[in-house]
Amino acid sequence: MKKILFSNPGIKILSVVLAISMWIFVTYRGQSEMAVDAPIGFKNVPKGLELLRESAKSVALNLRGQERLLKSLKPMDFNVFVDLSNAKRGETTYYLDKNAVIVPGTVDILRVDPTSVRVVLDESMVKTLPVKASVIGAPEKGFRIASADVKPSVVTVEGARTELERIAVLRTEAIDVTGFDSDIRETVRLNINGRNIRTRTPEVTVSIGIRR
C-alpha cells in the first residue's frame, strides 16, 4: 500500500494541479463584472429623531458573477442599508462595507464607493401650517381671479425641527388658470420643495373664483 501511495509522485502532483485548474475553469467560466448604483436606505431611526440630511444618497458598486445572472438583475435587487439604531442628534459618519450591501448570494462585491456617509439627525417636531394656493397664468381677457380658497386651510406637518422652524406656510402645486373664464375646482398635492418633511394631508382641494 505504501509503495502504491508514493509511486509516481510526479503524475499524482500533475493530476492534483489539473483537477484544481479544471475546478477554477468551471467556477469562473462565464464570469463577468458590472457596475451599478444602489440607493442608500436608513433604518431604525431612533424615536424622537429625524434624518435631516446625508452626504450621499447612493453608492457605486462593482460586482462580479455569472454573466447570465448579472444581466437578469434589476435595480431593486441591490440595497445598501445604514443602521441608525444607536444614532444621536448631530452629525455621525457611518462606514459602508460589504456587510452593508445586500445582493444575491452568488454575486461578489468587489468595490463600494463611497466607503462612508455622513448623516445628520435632528429633533422631531410637529407643526400646524396654513396652506396657500399657488396660481399661475392669467384668465381669459376681461376676467380676473376673485378668490382662491383651500380646504383644508391648515395641515399638520412632521419633520426635523431645523426644517420646520424655517417654514411659515405651505403652498400647493401650481394651478394654471390661463384662458379660463369660469370657476375652477381642483384637488392638488402640497408642494414640500424636496424638504425632508411629512404631511398628514398630502392633498387639498382648491376652489378658484373667476369673475368679469
Shape: elongated
Q: Which class of secondary structure composition applies to the elements?
A: alpha+beta
**Count of helical segments?**
4
Query: From N to C, what is the helix and strand string?
Result: HHEEEHEEEEEEEEHEEEEE
Strand content: over 45%
Distance between the termini: 112 Å
**Which CATH architecture of the largest domain is right?**
Beta Complex
Helix percentage? 10-25%
Integer tally of domains: 2
Which CATH top level class of the largest domain fits?
Mainly Beta
- Taking all Cα atoms into account, the compactness measure Rg is 30 Å
Description:
The termini are far apart. The protein has helices at 2-6, 9-28, 67-72, 161-164, and strands at residues 31-43, 49-54, 58-66, 79-83, 90-95, 101-102, 108-113, 116-132, 135-136, 144-151, 154-160, 170-172, 175-176, 184-191, 197-199, 203-211. It has four helices and 16 strands. The chain has 212 residues and is an alpha+beta fold. It has two domains: 30-123, RNA Polymerase Alpha Subunit, Chain A, domain 2 (Beta Complex); 133-211, RNA Polymerase Alpha Subunit, Chain A, domain 2 (Beta Complex). Strands 2, 5, 8, 10, 11, 12, 14, 15 and 16 form a nine-stranded mixed sheet that branches. Strands 6-4-1-3-7 form a five-stranded mixed sheet. Strands 9-13 form a two-stranded parallel sheet.
Topology:
Layout lengths: L1 H5 L2 H20 L2 E13 L5 E6 L3 E9 H6 L6 E5 L6 E6 L5 E2 L5 E6 L2 E17 L2 E2 L7 E8 L2 E7 H4 L5 E3 L2 E2 L7 E8 L5 E3 L3 E9 L1
Parallel strand pairs: 1-4, 8-12, 9-13
Antiparallel strand pairs: 1-3, 2-8, 3-7, 4-6, 5-8, 8-11, 10-16, 11-15, 12-14, 14-16
